[in-house]
Amino acid sequence: MVARTDVAVVLTDFDAWLAALPVRWRAGQIERVREAHALACEEAPHPGAHPPALAVADVLAGLKLDHEVVCAALLYPKYAEGDLARDDVTERFGESVLALLDGIAKIAVVGDFHQQLNAHGEQLEALRKMLLAMAQDVRVVLIALAMRLERMRRLGAEDPGTQVRIARETQDLFAPLANRLGIGSLKWELEDLALRYLEPRAYKGIARALDERRIERQSYIEEAMAALREELQRAGIRAEVSGRVKHIYSIWKKMQRKRLPFNEIFDVRAVRVIVDSVADCYAALGVVHARWNHIRKEFDDYIANPKANGYRSLHTAVFGPEGRTLEVQIRTLEMHQNAELGVAAHWRYKEGGTAHGSAFEQQIAWLRQMLEWKDEDGDGDDLLDRFKAEALQDRVYVLTPRGQIIELPQGATPLDFAYHVHTELGHRCRGAKVNGRIVPLTYELKNGEQIEILSAKSATPSRDWLLPHLGYLRSARARTKVRNWFRQLDLEHSISSGRQALERELHRLGVRNVNLERLAEQLGHARAEELFAAIGRGETTIAHVVSVAQDMILPPPQVEPELPVTQAPRATESGEVHIRGVGKLLTQMAKCCHPVPYDAIVGFITIGRGVTIHRRDCPNLLDLEEHHSERLIEVSWGDEIEASYSVDIQIEAYDRTGLLRDITQVLANDKINVVAVNTLSDKAAGTARMTLTIEICDVGQLSRLLDKLAQLPNVIDASRRG
């Protein structure tokens, strides 16, 4: 950040401070900041000093962030101490400022995690991602970075143990985050200050070497730039030539990586050339190499071969004036702007990390553009939605009881967590605690929560875990482990359990007279036993089998001679019943059996009411076949079925308060219309029987609904009636 003289006076005098800021706030916004500034000034440690919150706000205002961010930075010390009530913040500064204050408090625990874990490697990377994910507003991360910078500036007053701890946190967490967000002004100062306390001898040695020759080095760079400008102008290349600042941490890092002494680091003396086009880059490179001798093995073409992070530039080192080493970077203006946003200092390049998925890289690029958008848009109020960190919410970061960070897919459950830790723990999982509170296995985990798995002595996974709509498992990896467990069960047990599961589902759906051998053949199995075994092992889901079965229960097509017609046949409309060989007739669903799409059906010609559609297994159809067989006709469902059909379902349960409410909530969530409800309670037995008439689209929807109803507390059974 820019250092100013008499900083305490400037920061505590609001009007003088405002005049020095590069911001454009409206009058109402300025008054809010003035009010927050006055509250912050009450926190001065002693007369004449400026409170840390003022310096933090100054850093953030220097980044041209909005007034809400500056207000939150000014108010946080009072808010954290409990001297500022939530209602008071909302009334005086708005809900956005309150949300920022809560976000700062939430991510403050990340430093504690770092201290407890002694994190490194993958765990350290998980901590960085966790910090970003926990801050639902990206501005919270920026406030945290500014607070950390001010803490580092004041670290000299702390004891040596605290200095090392805070510096290590800064180097591991905060400097890399500043790097990812492309805020170079914060990144280099955080890195230099951290090195000052972690490697004091190296820091002082490099600082002394730089200081001793600063005037000489500046004079040398000016001479080299003048010579290069003259050569480029003579070659007809329009270019901007400038000196490059190399910071102490960068020099130390290169000395460590290349195992070189200070005087052999080429880019201590460095210039940058910015030209108009890629062709000019190579032309400028030719001018540089023609003017000075190139140092072997010190040339990198990142234009032809960009880095994995997208960085593009030409790097070369030459023996410059007086034979001293000089590094030259050549790039276009577009390349330079991209690098200044942080691409050149991307964490995988500077921090030596490994490659990550493109989705996460795109999200980080989104965050980096924030400061650029602020510069382009005078009024930042409308930009806030762009800066939300929901883009990072494809992952969730939780903790084991020992404090290890586990990365899981967004929406993961305690069961996903158990299988991630160890396959056997997942198999034996019977419950879970989140932050000490027992939760269901379908609970959706949130960032920063600590998970404890409650396990049994033996492994007994449930096949319900494999049903996606029940919500037990989110990750495909965990579902594969469950399937593998069932696959290894005894074959006879698999056949028995698979047969029971299929028969139970078909019975529950009211589907009868299915040829199981033919069904197995349709699914690629030689015998029905193989199908049962596949279901029992979890290789084939009941839902898939039912979807094939419902196609099979359609009546087989009959070949009939074509009859001459006087008008073109009308296409079967969505949800209609098609009557073979006959034009469009009035049809209605029989109220005795309530057929739904893909049930096996037959039509009965009534007197004056068209054709009534019955299920083939309807009890009333037996009497009709015996006495009125001549009035039965073949019918089939139309090709596209989008209409709703009434069906009766029956629910048996142990009676309890709120049972009907929970059932109707499931129906409402699935957007299923309820036509009628009939409830009968047996107070002596403590049971309840409910019959509901609902409207569904197909058998698959009915199957999913019955599964969800059966999962409700106290429900004994849920099945189709009739």
TrEMBL record:
Keywords: Kinase, Transferase. Residues 394-455 form the TGS domain. Pathway: Purine metabolism. GO terms for molecular function: GTP diphosphokinase activity; guanosine-3',5'-bis(diphosphate) 3'-diphosphatase activity; kinase activity. GO terms for cellular component: plasma membrane. InterPro entries: ACT-like_dom_sf, ACT_dom, Beta-grasp_dom_sf, NT_sf, RelA/Spo_fam, RelA/SpoT_AH_RIS, RelA_SpoT, TGS. In eubacteria ppGpp (guanosine 3'-diphosphate 5'-diphosphate) is a mediator of the stringent response that coordinates a variety of cellular activities in response to changes in nutritional abundance. Belongs to the relA/spoT family. This is GTP pyrophosphokinase.
